[in-house]
Amino acid sequence: MFGFDTNLSREELLGVLSSFGIAIPPTSKLPVESLQKRLRQAINASQAMPLVNARPPLDPAQYPKWPQGYKGLFDAIRRGNLQEAAMTQLAMREGQDPSPLYVNAFMDVRQTLMSLANNCETGFKHAVMQDLEKEKCAINLRVVDVYKIDERTPLLIVLYQSFSAANPLPGIQWVQEQMSKHHQMPNVNATELEQKLLLLILEMNSKRLPPGFTVKRLKSEKDFKLSFLLPMGPLSYHDIGKLNLNTGCVVCGHDINSRCSQCQSVAYCGIECQKADWPSHKAACRSLKGGEWTTMPFSSRMPGTLGMIGQLINLRDNFQSNMMAPMQTTDDTPPQNAYGNRLFLIKLQHTFGPGEGTFLIYDRKRTCVVYFLESKAPEVFKRFKAEITGPRGGNYGSGMFKMYRWAKRVGEQELSVCLDKVPNADSIKW
Ligand SMILES: [Zn+2]
Ligand SMILES: [Zn+2]
After folding, report:
1. Quick count: other Cβ atoms within 10 Å of Cβ 127?
2. For a designed S-S bond to 155, which of 15, 147, 319, 349 qualifies (C-beta 3.0 to 4.6 A apart)?
3. 98 C-alpha to ligand 2 centroid (Å)
């Protein structure tokens, strides 16, 4: 009743999803409910909810409390993975701010979680979150208690309420009550979009508390909602793949009724979606026209590298919850399909010498790093080799050959590659 309109518009949903790493094309006609569902799944995945509790309710009383003074809370709430660490390093090397605030709602929420934890450690359990202009919307929030699910997983019980500029009075009363006790009010800047995302997370989590769970409230908190916050980490490789999956029409996901007649490589439910997709498909289509699609089996692992530390680290695995994870190699399970049935660019690399008999293949985002081994399909391998060493391939000297091609996932361990067509230069923004 005091709050601002927390509904995420379609455009906002797409933006927030992309901040989680779920890239749905802006032309997509996936219904809003389906986008909302994906966002909820992304939030659960980010909070590692299945690890914490398979089903609601989550009863905090079953866990011990975080020790007095909240020492170590900030470190425990941080999450990351190697992929993100690599991106940060890259940004810093290029002189950019590795995590610019206020452009990525998901990153912003994670930064806010860290601020809250940091404030707890320095003795402040209350905060006001406000948009930069301080005139649209705000969330008053107090950390009531912190439980310890395990060494690296704190559970923050919070009371909160959102306010709009149109009706700020109840919010001001709470601020005054807090000020009279603590004489300071930590202020956390949060864009309207971040606030909307945070409120969605809190609303989802509040339903997971058992009905009988209560906390002591201040006088000005009688209308506050009760919920909890958990550490939030970047989504794992597996989750990103699952949430990007879009079977059926590449635009809306409905049943397939037609294909692009020019290139035969993308499928739609009908003419309307095909038209909507044309601006983004155009470049790929032109370079695919008349191309020959060749199916190639792949392996997730180079033979002979079993147990080789560092070779096959899953870059998207969250390592904060298990510090040893980066040291483990993955098995031969195929990477999740991060593209659904959409086309994506791959880079193929072949080296003569000791590595003869293999292609290294990966996409720009490195969600799919796989090998094509000669022994798996010698005839197909011959054609790939002829292509990469031929006039459309790229000789980089010292026996090293590289080429880019359009590809799509056609099976658990199969890619279909448009082998004889070179993608046009402006689509290769590697
Ligand atoms: Zn469609
Ligand atoms: Zn086409």
Report:
1. 24
2. 147
3. 37
Q: Are 49 and 263 in contact (CB under 8 A)?
A: no
Structure tokens, 179: 């000020």
Return the residue matching tokens 């692009």: 260
Q: Which two tokens stand for residue 229?
A: 């916050």
**CA distances from residue 55 to 41, 49, 59, 209 in whole angstroms, order as listed:** 14, 9, 11, 11
pTM, whole model, 2 decimals?
0.66
The two three-digit tokens of residue 346, written as one number: 């791959």
Could you report the per-residue pLDDT of 382-425, keeping only the tens digit for each?
A: 999 999 999 999 888 888 899 999 998 888 789 999 999 998 77
- 195 CB burial (10 A radius; 0-12, 13-18, 19+): buried
Q: Which of 1, 19, 41 is nearest to 191 (CA)?
A: 19
Angle at CA 85, nearest 5°, toward 73 and 92? 110
Greatest Cα pair distance, the chain, in angstroms, is 79
Q: State how far Cα 162 lies from the chain centre.
A: 26
Which portions of the chain are predicted below pLDDT 50?
Answer: 1, 101, 305-314, 319-330
Sorted by where each begins, the domain ranges of the chain are 10-233, 292-427
Distance 34 CA to ligand 1 centre (A): 14
Strand (E) or helix (H) holding 380: helix 378-389
CA–centroid distance, 254 to ligand 1, in Å, is 6
* Alpha-carbon distances, residue 329 vs 1, 308, 314 (angstroms): 51, 7, 8
- Residues having C-beta closer than 5 Å to ion ligand 2: 260, 262-263, 285
Neighbouring residues of 424: CB distance < 8 A, sequence distance ≥ 6: 283, 286, 287
